[in-house]
Specification:
Blueprint lengths: L8 E4 H6 L8 E12 L4 E4 L4 E4 L11 E10 L6 E10 L5 H19 L1
Parallel strand pairs: 1-2, 4-6
Antiparallel strand pairs: 2-3, 2-5, 3-4, 5-6
């Protein structure tokens, strides 16, 4: 039996925080800075709160560093916020976040023209 994995939607942590229900059950690629790590639960909270990354399949990350994670979104109780069950994660320290956001906007505009 063949399983197809949908491509991850490229989003920012603040977009996930604002509207978690629209990403429920979807695969996402999220950019965010790791604010805190909980080694007991093997999770990391991204800066701004409300987004927790489950690191069970990813391994160690460094607090204060910028990361991209690919994984599935699961909304939790109000205490936990939104959880991204990460399958992949990598450090992207050095990325110009302002330029990244600008490129993401341009990519989205281009993809809209392709759908029309």
């Amino acid at each position: 039996m063949e399983t197809t994995i949908e491509p991850a939607e490229v989003i920012l942590a603040e977009e996930l925080r604002k509207d978690p229900e629209s990403f429920e059950g979807k695969c996402v690629r999220v950019l965010g800075k790791v604010a805190a790590i909980n080694p007991r639960d093997n999770t990391a909270e991204l800066t701004g709160g409300g987004v927790v990354v489950d690191l069970k399949l990813v391994g160690a990350v460094k607090a204060g560093s910028l990361y991209q994670f690919i994984g599935d979104v699961a909304t939790q109780s109000a205490d936990d916020g939104v959880v991204v069950n990460a399958r992949l994660g990598w450090c992207v320290d050095g990325v110009d976040v302002r330029l990244y956001k600008e490129a993401l906007r341009a990519r989205r505009q281009f993809l809209k023209t392709m759908d029309a």
